[in-house]
Amino acid sequence: MKVKIKKDAKQAYLNSLGRFNPINWDFAKQMDQISGMLIEVDINYLFNNQINTVPVPGISENGFRLFDYVIEEVIDEVRHLYKRCGYCGKKSEKPTEFCIHCNKSEYLEDLTPWYMRKYPEREYNNHGKRLERGTYKN
Ligand SMILES: [Zn+2]
Fold this sequence. Notes:
Shape: globular
Radius of gyration: 16 Å
Oligomer: single chain
Bound molecules: zinc ion
Strand order of the largest sheet: 2-1-5-9
Number of domains: 2
Largest sheet: 4 strands, antiparallel
Strand content: 15-25%
């Protein structure tokens, strides 16, 4: 799974901030540096409203935690295939009613991202189809 970062990611970050939120200028600079890049997602840690990337050489040794506002496209989406355990944080492949790691069934959260929930009639797959995510924005 990869994400294409918006060309104006720095501005998208700044626009995302509320009026009274402080600006993290180091992060803003990094968003400028990764603008337009195609970055691999760390699928060991999945969330339905954000993504973690693998390290980006020369820019971030730890990778980034990114929200939708800087993402232009998602390629090879995999989140809809999993549920995340709110107890141990690990993912289990669907269909399952139990976390395969800790067996605490009551804490499973479907990881299907918002655009797949909003447009369930559209055809998505995880075999190389490019999802034009930006077009789903209001
Ligand atoms: Zn678990």
